Amino acid sequence: MTTLPSFAKRLLQRFNKQNRRRRRKQRKHVQEGAERYGLDPAACDEQYAAEINHYWHKHYGRSVHPLWHTLYDKRLKHRDVRFVPSYNWWEEIMPFFNDLTLRPTYLDKNLSDSFLSITQSPATLIKRMHGHYYDADNQPLTSSAAHQRLIDASQPQIIKGSRTDNGDNIHLLESHNGCLEIDGETTPFTDLENHFGNNYIVQEKITQHPLIAKPHPSSVNTIRIVSFRWQDEIHILLSILRFGIDGNIFDNASNGGIFCGIDRNGETHKTAFDKKGTAYCVHPTSGYEFSNQITIPNYPQLCELAVELHSQIFHFDIVSWDFSISPQSEPIFLEVNFRGSADTYQLASGKPLFGNLTDEVLKTVRESRK
């Protein structure tokens, strides 16, 4: 029979093992962050580090590494103990609020029109789901019919994997003289299947509002709005505007794009950043000066739409919405994402992710461990 002391010993050993594993993962994450942003992990001001750990111990129940607070201190010239460190965001906070086991289904771009009431989005030419082809109304197509639709398309299209997020695997698709071209290179239809697999979508390349296009007209510059369900109310945490560079059609940071924050009034910030935290006062390709701030057309309507759409999703409390704006100033839904970089969000917005909700959010996460 197991004695209480031996049971307690095994429990303590398990707890210690979990703590060692967590510390190893944190050290690795800190090292990767330091390399990415060109920071010294030990460079945080001692007094500021003590304030950070006092706050996080009090509300979160654990100490945190001050690397990311150092990042915001250096790049934004702003100190706030409530900034959320990247490691804690990815490892505990975001998974607490989002049921990531359901993410593969919800992020499928081919299904967005099935579980969301979307009024305006890019026109869909074809869908491929589980190796089968469908039209925009989810009616079956033969492979040859799907191929012919692409050949007959008179306007540029966007092709992308339907089960990826945050701008992965997006390409320009065009038809010229009966041949398909991906990013300007002739590509047989069968190669689309080989590259994109059993799940992808082809949609029209939208025309965007000239104000949104101005900093970099070659890319579809998108507005990302982050919404948060908290105590039965959906809040808008922040918004950012993303731009491509070097003539690319992509605007996401992972492909070299840059981003800037949008304030509560829908006006863009005067500084943009890239994924390494480098600041830009001028667009590196077009020369557009970010001091010429853009007021997002119909920004309140855009936020209302994000809240309305989030009310239709129940297993994810933190959702990132990607929109464009039509030339008529109408919101165009592009895609929904269930993960996102706290670094990107906080750099762009210049403020802690959860703002004045941070104390209670951290307390809730802490209490979930009991």
Describe what you observe in this structure.
- The longest helix has 34 residues.
- The strands form 2 sheets. Strands 3-2-1-8-4-5-6-7 form an 8-stranded antiparallel sheet, covered by helices on one side. Strands 13-12-11-10-9-14-15 form a 7-stranded antiparallel sheet, with helices on both faces.
- By secondary structure, it is α+β, with helices and mostly antiparallel strands.
- It is 35% helix and 22% strand.
- It folds into 3 domains: 87 residues, no CATH class; 81 residues; 131 residues, D-amino Acid Aminotransferase, Chain A, domain 1 (2-Layer Sandwich).
- Strand 9 and strand 10 form a beta hairpin.
- InterPro entries: RimK-rel_E_lig_ATP-grasp.
- This is Alpha-L-glutamate ligase-related protein ATP-grasp domain-containing protein.
- Pfam families: ATPgrasp_ST (PF14397).
Proportion of β residues? 15-25%
CATH architecture designation of the largest domain? 2-Layer Sandwich
- Biggest sheet statistics: 8 strands, antiparallel
Radius of gyration using CA atoms only: 23 Å
Pattern of helices and strands: HHHHHHEEEHEEEEHEHEEEEEHEEHH
